[in-house]
Amino acid sequence: MVSFWLMSNNIYLIDFIMKNRKLTFISFLLAIVSLSFSSCGEIETNNIDHKTNLSTSMVASEYTIAFYNVENLFDTEDDPFTSDDEFTPNGEKRWTEKRYHKKLKNIAKVASALDSSLPMLFGVCEVENLKVLEDLVQEPKLQKANYGIVHFDSPDTRGIDVALMYKKDYFEVLETESLEVSFERHPNVLTRDILYVKGVLNGEEINVFVNHWSSRRKGEKATEYKRLEAAEVLKDRIEEIQELDAKAKIIVMGDFNDYPNNSSIVDVLEASLEPKSDEFYNLAAKLDKNYKGSHFYNDEWGMLDQMMISNSWLSSKKGNVIKDKTVSVFKPDWVLFNHFKLGMIPSKTYSGQKYHGGYSDHLAVYLKMKFKK
């Protein structure tokens, strides 16, 4: 019994009780009982949480699934194994606890505005580690969601990862996997893994992939091989799922650093620009075609942040159903900055080394879903 309690995060209470000789044995027992009740209310934010206890009576009739590149969510501590030095109090960006917590509040504000009940599934990228995610879900605006977290550390040199936050009352994690993206001809080049999560949502099994493919920083053509390889890794895993279940419901989300009409999306993933019964469908295609975007770069908007679905969603008339066959971009004025020359563009945390305290250089994308019996 004592060894069980030594495993809890409240071990300091036990130490106090044992050292305080004025406490009687009865008081000790009462303290243990009290401790047991307080521990039951703790939010679990383990990397892999397979202990979800779902109430069969709880079903979300309408809800939101979202993705957000939160732009450099770093803590203030220096990780000696990654290139995060600029995001420290003495680094180039003077990244302080005050700025860090403002960043957390900004992300929480976006999430709560996406859906007053908060997103059911919330994929994010550019997060440094599990700690920043645990701090995020503890933000007052997010606590009512009772979020669990799926996260793995990626080999990315800057130490940024992808993750999935999920409402533990409605979604049960069955399987998680970190898909490595490596380059045979460039073995020293490292990038983010792809996150795979299989789970049960409202009693129905679904599969979710969260992506953050390599950037175009050194040029679109020079870096294209990285995104093509990421697409191959993702496609292979999708085909494995579909071989076991041709009607598997699959959602692919992320910052792809490619557009819906690029080869990695159209040719490798075979994500169609129009809804077809025999292919994946890119829910961001129509927005891209109409020159809408989630990211502003080189004086133009681009649809780098996308959501794609397997054809099984298109014919689904029961269970979890997508309301509209398109993704939406979250674009209220308060997440934008009115540039004197460029107009309304994403309000970033930094512009170069200058701190602005904004939200992100990307806008969140989301889709609305409903549950039909």
What this model shows, in words?
The protein has 373 residues and is α+β, with helices and mostly antiparallel strands. The protein has two domains: 2-39; 62-372, Deoxyribonuclease I, Chain A (4-Layer Sandwich). It contains eight helices and 20 strands. It has helices spanning 2-6, 11-19, 25-39, 97-114, 130-137, 220-244, 263-268, 285-289, and strands at residues 62-73, 121-127, 147-151, 161-167, 171-179, 194-201, 204-212, 250-255, 271-272, 280-282, 295-297, 300-302, 305-309, 319-322, 328-329, 336-339, 343-346, 350-351, 354-355, 365-372. The strands form five sheets. Strands 1, 2, 3, 4, 14, 15 and 20 form a seven-stranded mixed sheet that branches. Strands 5-6-7-8-13-10-9 form a seven-stranded mixed sheet. A two-stranded antiparallel sheet has the order 11-12. α2 (11-19) runs antiparallel to α3 (25-39) and α4 packs across α5 (130-137). It is globular, with a radius of gyration of 22 Å.
